[in-house]
Amino acid sequence: MAKEGKYEEALKLIRQDNPFPAVCGAVCNRRCEDACTRGTVDDPVAIDEIKKFVAQQELDPAFRKNILPICERDEGGFWDDNYKMAVIGSGPAGMSCAYYLRTKGYPVTVFEKEEKPGGMLTYGMPSFRLSKDLVDAEIDMLREMGIEFRCGVEVGRDVSIADLRAEGYRAFYVSIGLSGGRNTGVPGEDAIGVESGIGFLNRVNRDHSVKLTGDVVVVGGGNVAVDVARTAQRVTDGHITMICLEGADEMPAAADEVEDARSEGIEVKNGWGPKEILTSGGRVTGVVFKKCTQVKNADGAFDPQYDEDTTITVSCENVLEAIGQSAVWGDLLKETKAETRRGGTVICDPVTFQTAEPDIFAGGDINHGARFAIDAIADGKKGAESMHRFVHEGQSLTIARDLREFVELDKDDIRIPYGYDHAKRSVPGSRKVEDRFDDTRLPLTEEQVHQEADRCLGCGATTVDINRCIGCGLCTTRCEFDAIHLQRDLPDCSNYMKAEDKMKAIAPYAISREFRIIRKAAKDAASRKPKQEN
Asked: What is the DSSP letter of 461?
């Protein structure tokens, strides 16, 4: 669709499974491209960049109005105030759940303890990676759909689950994310100048005028650690050193993100773990690191081992710990049966996301731990399906449920079509910015989008034999992915008729045909009647 310039249709198709393509275009880890068959030839199709281009069209309010989802049964019926839904937390999981519930016509309220919605998209991801204009545009779409946001309201402090039940809410989706940081547990961690990476990002996202003084050490090797290091680079005139346990090829952070950090002058040291934070007068002066000899054991479980005698000391005035995230529950689950695991995440059914409290469902990082935005978005859609079933008595949460268990194409036995497009993968440009917190990345141009889409090998396409298809349209009603559409190439050669006019044309023929059937039946009966013998 993008190749043909059908951007509205393309965006509607994307939103069947992902209501926030602009967000994913900026921060997704691109697992779809890892699976792209084109990657077996040269480079995978730039799927994420194409979606980013399509999604950015939505910044135009007129365009957004044309692709606004249609909400089912919006007035009266079963989908009235007797079926109010509550979403607690407005990160990608919560907003995704709200989106899909609203498309089914439910009244949805999103409760957010912060002053602005978006969760980690707003407060956890730096602007140079995810423009807040894009996040705001996605949220504006939800508002235009009729979703209510109640910001500055913390469930468990300002209002309880019991209070919301009394207000008529029938089901709850908990998606509060992991807003706390984790400590390294080494001596000196309570010194002035030590801060969690998550807390630091939150602080800077609220106020870009925040400054650090002196050199900074970032502990951690994931994408959050890279965000912390690149953000620190923008708020201090000191040197930034990022140090992690993993080797250069084992780092959990995306390779292109690490390269971006290095290109900004950030030093990356691999294979070291913190041993002690050095202090003087209660302030940080440096960090002692010990050599890491093993990150995971033979079973693949996290089990770091160290050589305590091999150490390095890195001088600094600030230490930002980005080694993981933790749950901050408050009293949200007070007087409910919902339970949490040792690590703070909530215990719920892996398919339905239902907790021990039947009307409470949970998804996103608070369910399974820190993952990517696209995982949270997927959880939101699954949670919405469960809540939809739950509020209607007699419905099973599991029967006939699509578990999305796809069988991947066997790439060891593929035939590349003859004469495929040999163009190289399109690379987006960059721009100079005055504000260092602005995103320097540009989307693909329209010409690049068409060229890149041409690189697709069509391994997911199906060819229809037009000599056998009679155009009945039954396939369009059976396809659960809404992937099949019929259209007339020459509409002027056909006569279209309104539904109310159909009987005017059909009735005379139907009556005439009925009389013919009766006459033929009588004639056949007479011919079968045995002749009387003389």
From this structure: -
